Amino acid sequence: MSNTLLPMIPVKTWVDNSVEWITDTFEFVFDPVKNNLDSFIEFLSETLQMINPWVFIAVIAIVAFFVTGKRIGLAAFSIVGLWFILNQEMWEQLMDTFSLVITASLISVIVGVPFGIWMAKSNIVQAILTPILDFMQTMPAFVYLIPAVAFFGIGMVPGVFASVIFAVPPTVRFTNLGIRQVSTELIEAADAFGTTGLQKLFKVQLPMAKKTIMAGINQTVMLALSMVVIASMIGAEGLGKEVITALQRNDVGLGFVAGVSIVILAIVIDRFTQSLNSQKGE
């Protein structure tokens, strides 16, 4: 029912026109980004698939053993979990998903850490970026698929784009938090020794904030992984596509296997990043 006293604000029209204008105006940017990023993801996926699965599993297990301080738990879980995925003929999909997660996580960290440093250095920037980050984290993930498709079409690249928007806020927030929590005494000591701003940042603030920043990166990687099912709705390959296929066909078995495979990958990545964080903090 329309309200005659207050006419409807044409927000939908404004957004449609804005997206159309951005798509047309910056097509010269979106097309090269799509082509180059698509080539990189395809190259990464094909490279990973060229590796013998048993060699891949062995390498992951060995690295897990040493990363966790020579404990057998994560290494054993990695062997059993990855063997299960291989046994269920989901290895190719696993590599596609892993490529998507790696790409989205790298871009999120490359973008997020500088913005977090910027926030830590300026209260004005923090006041501006905080509500933007709140908006990015509270907006339903499905909504990000709409501009992603408008800007980049269908495929892996819009999936990466949506994943980055969804996953980057924790890295920004934790980087800002970690730097701001550095002891004022250390900052004053660095100033007393005549360090420059960059020296203070790279030799004092970032090293002291490493543990907090790594916690943010861990959350970013997990959020990027959580987008794999959603990104498959716009053409991203991988385990998420198998989940969507199972849903469309009402294939409970396929959905369960794909879902368990995603969980296994999530646990392995999470434990790896947590173990790296523990080592950084030592």
From TrEMBL:
It comes from Pontibacillus chungwhensis. Residues 94-273 form the ABC transmembrane type-1 domain. The chain crosses the membrane at residues 54-86, 98-121, 141-168, 213-234, 254-273. It is found in: Cell membrane; Membrane. Keywords: Cell membrane, Membrane, Transmembrane, Transmembrane helix, Transport. Belongs to the binding-protein-dependent transport system permease family. It is a multi-pass membrane protein. It holds the Pfam family BPD_transp_1. Its main location: membrane. This is Proline/glycine betaine ABC transporter permease. InterPro entries: MetI-like (IPR000515), MetI-like_sf (IPR035906). It comes from the Bacteria.
